[in-house]
Predict the structure.
Amino acid sequence: MIKFNLVSLAIGALITAAVGVDAQAAHKASNGPLDRQFLRGQPQPPAGAAFKLKLTYRNASNSTISVPAATFVPVDALTQIKCPGSGTCTIVAETSSQVLGVSTSGRWAICTYVDSIPINGSCIWQGQVADDWVIGSNRANYAVSAGNHQIQSFIYMVQGGSLTNYQFDYSVFIP
């Protein structure tokens, strides 16, 4: 079971890294409203560092939310997260959402913000949404200083649609 979970996490991290690179390239080329969300130089935790989980905040629901076309729609409530001590913490956001489109040609994205900054440096495109339910997910991390921080996730759909069955886990890790 543990071996399976570690393999799943490794595969998920590789997929997330690949999707993140593609999404950032798409943002640069698209001239769309998400281009304004692209930031460079986002703080990242040190590579190879060992971390301890302090706590996890979970926001989840199966309520249906209407998503107008080309609009950033907040999915969960603004969540207050505390980085304890006097050093730094790493916030890991694991997001999963199920959406239904109104068109077979619309793209959609999950956008998670820490202190009003996109956690990945941009929203992460999930691909095309069809006229049937599709699921998208993302895992990303963001280094923060000690103190209180705010985190919230949004859905963006080019053609609009509906969202339901989401779960967003925000975990705080310390070195």
Observations:
- The first strand starts at residue 52 and ends at 61.
